[in-house]
Write a structure and sequence with these properties.
Layout lengths: L8 H7 L3 E4 L2 H10 L3 E7 L10 H12 L3 E7 L20 H16 L12 E4 L1 H4 L4 H7 L6 H5 L2 H9 L7 H4 L1 H16 L1 E7 L3 H15 L4 E5 L27 H9 L3 H11 L4 H9 L9 H30 L8 H8 L4 E4 L6 H7 L6 H9 L3 E3 L2 E3 L16 E6 L3 E7 L1
Parallel strand pairs: 2-3, 2-5, 3-4, 5-6, 7-11
Antiparallel strand pairs: 1-6, 8-9, 8-10, 10-11
Length: about 425
């Protein structure tokens, strides 16, 4: 007798505002309630790190794994050489296979922090589509795969149509145009060799996913399924995961654990509960109760709860404790009470510059710290009362550092606005 799974994973994803689109929901629900399945999600290797925009897919895979299903992560060593044109205005910069292999290793380490790779039958695995594409014969591919795809149908896909409209000069390359075939074959390959019946992706992957479903139906006469997750956007409609200045990476060398912690701590009130639903596994009742409470103290805020949760799962307990300590030093401690050890912690954790112990103008320091790109911009920042030295506001453009400004003879805390810090270490 088949033991039924009491948890409705599809309802759970919908309640948490994660589920966006699904194929044949009733049939998939029946299968998921009666048996464990293999499912996959693919990530192309376009950088040496994933960013927080990728976390929803990883957390969704984790929900499935916790119910006994087996997640497979496909890292696109081959498809990364082509580039997905979906909703991109121009062709991606192409990278060498050697660079992509290095990125494969780095991203694999990040994924292993989130999914369980040692839990028996449903242990997660990572595969690289370069392993089957590099030995695929072009004639085989055109005969066995290409014959199932029709140009007029592909041209009507939004991902292709938008590219043609927005790039009238060059349009789209044949390589990028063929990307859908490659991703579709990924699904077919995993279905045949790993018994995968469900593909997961972001909402921008719907066209590629349904193409894979159609290919498997034509090639193997099998029924498979697809799910997409909601695209995470900010209030202004821009993609979540990227700020005006930089992307929030999972790699601590690209985005420090402190910066990561601060990012979540500063999620606006209008988005915080939505993100608690989507990014955490807290019970919905707990989050709903939190909504009813008014927390004026930052450390009791839903933002603080989210920052703690996300930093711990991505960077671990040690980096969470360190990030909270840095936050306390910068925002809650009086500069006069900071110890030499406090400054040493900051030196290893936040943006810093090391310079010779001689006279430097504030304008020059602002350029070195990258708070300003020129003397003109530096002067404007100072005149606008945006610059602080050891938490004292500076309004003179002619300001010169003296030994008075060097704590323990070596440290000066520079601040732009309320939240941008740089520690100066004087040799």
């Amino acid at each position: 007798m088949i033991k039924k799974n009491k948890t409705n994973i599809l309802k759970k994803l919908k309640d948490r505002n994660i589920l966006y689109q699904i194929t044949n929901q009733n049939k998939l629900f029946t299968i998921l309630s009666q048996q464990n399945i293999n499912l996959y999600c693919g990530f192309d290797l376009t950088a040496d790190s994933l960013h927080i925009g990728h976390l929803i897919q990883l957390f969704t895979l984790k929900y499935f794994q916790e119910l006994g299903h087996k997640p497979i992560i496909l890292l696109g060593g081959a498809t990364s050489l082509i580039g997905d044109p979906s909703f991109k205005l121009k062709e991606r910069k192409m990278n060498s296979i050697d660079i992509i292999n290095i990125w494969f290793h780095k991203i694999s380490i990040q994924i292993k922090k989130i999914l369980d790779f040692n839990c028996g039958k449903n242990s997660a695995i990572i595969v690289n589509n370069y392993n089957w594409f590099y030995k695929t014969n072009i004639l085989f591919f055109l005969e066995k795969i290409g014959k199932y795809f029709y140009i007029n149908h592909m041209m009507n896909k939004d991902s292709i149509k938008n590219r043609m409209i927005n790039n009238e000069i060059n349009g789209i390359s044949f390589a990028e145009f063929s990307y859908t075939l490659l991703q579709s074959y990924d699904f077919a390959y995993l279905n045949k060799n790993f018994d995968v019946i469900l593909q997961l992706g972001g909402s921008d992957q719907w066209g590629n996913i349904t193409s894979g479903i159609d290919l498997i139906k034509k090639m193997y006469k099998k029924k498979v399924f697809g799910i997409t997750t909601n695209l995470i956007v900010k209030n202004d409609g821009t993609k979540f995961g990227k700020t005006e200045k930089k992307t929030i990476w999972l790699d601590k060398n690209k985005t420090s654990p402190y910066e990561f912690f601060q990012f979540w701590l500063n999620i606006p009130d209008s988005l915080i509960f939505k993100f608690l639903y989507m990014f955490t596994n807290l019970e919905l009742e707990i989050i709903n109760d939190f909504k009813k409470k008014k927390n004026d103290i930052k450390k009791n805020s839903p933002q603080y709860l989210l920052a703690e949760y996300m930093t711990k799962i991505v960077h671990g307990e040690h980096n969470l404790v360190l990030s909270k300590k840095i936050t306390n030093i910068l925002f809650y401690k009086n500069i006069k009470n900071l110890s030499q050890n406090d400054f040493s912690i900051l030196l290893n954790s936040i943006n810093n510059i090391v310079i010779n112990n001689k006279e430097f103008s504030l304008q020059k320091i602002l350029i070195l710290s990258k708070f300003a790109s020129s003397h003109t911009q530096a002067s404007k920042l100072i005149k606008s009362n945006s610059i602080y030295i050891n938490n004292e506001q500076i309004s003179k453009t002619s300001f010169i550092f003296t030994k008075y400004h060097k704590k323990f003879k070596h440290f000066t805390l520079l601040r732009k606005g309320k939240k941008n810090f740089c520690l100066i270490y004087w040799k």
